[in-house]
Amino acid sequence: MQWRVHGERPIYQSEWVDLTLVDVEIPDGPRFEHHVVRMPAAAAATIVHDPDRGVLLLWRHRFITDTWGWELPAGRIDAGETPEQAAARETLEETGWQPGPIHHLLSYHPVNGLSDHTFHVFVADGATEIGPPSDPTEADRVEWVPIDELRAIVDRGEMPDGFSLTGVLHALVTGAI
To answer: What's the pLDDT score for residue 145?
Structure first.
């Protein structure tokens, strides 16, 4: 059953996020306003995989949830940039490693009942170390993690970031890494 949209009005707008109230009606049901988080830009992440070293990860703190965890290099897709270009740029900025050839793994909406945000996940075949990260505020440390340890990180709940967790699990299940 498809809900009918009668319109929407902004509550708050910025370059990062918009909050709107959408006037919707459920078939044979009520009409009401639903909060929607609109994201002006999508995001891209890269699973940088090297058969000998494993996967390149960031160990970082997220103040919103006050949690530490392992994450993929990822970030916002800038205007005029393709998801692939953003994935490569974010990887280099956050890790100091230039990813090898990048292949699309999956795209999804992480909270499609509340937001229109889109995540794109890519797999890179290896990487070349260029130097230190150009944005050292992104992570406490950057490490290559062997695949067996990556599975243990997931099992221990040390990858609380949904973007990273979804991409890594999909890659493990499909054999992409």
So the answer is: 98
Could you give the CA distance from residue 100 to residue 34 in angstroms, rounded to a whole number?
43
Q: Identify the domain containing residue 69 by its residue range.
A: 43-174
Mean pLDDT, all residues of the chain: 96
Assess whether 78 and 152 both reside in one domain.
yes
User: Do 32 and 74 sit in the same domain of this protein?
Assistant: no
Tokens of 172: 């493990």
> Which domain CATH number covers 149?
3.90.79.10
Per-residue pLDDT, 56: 98
Cα 86 to Cα 90: distance, rounded to the nearest angstrom: 6
Contact 143, 59 (CB under 8 A): yes
pLDDT of residue 18: 97
Smallest CA-to-CA distance from 96 within 128, 133, 59 is with 133
Supply the DSSP symbol for 90.
Answer: H
pLDDT (tens digit per residue) in 73-108: 999 999 999 999 999 999 999 999 999 999 999 999
Q: Find the angle CA(45)-CA(96)-CA(150) to the nearest 5 degrees.
A: 55
- Token reading at 36: 């929607």
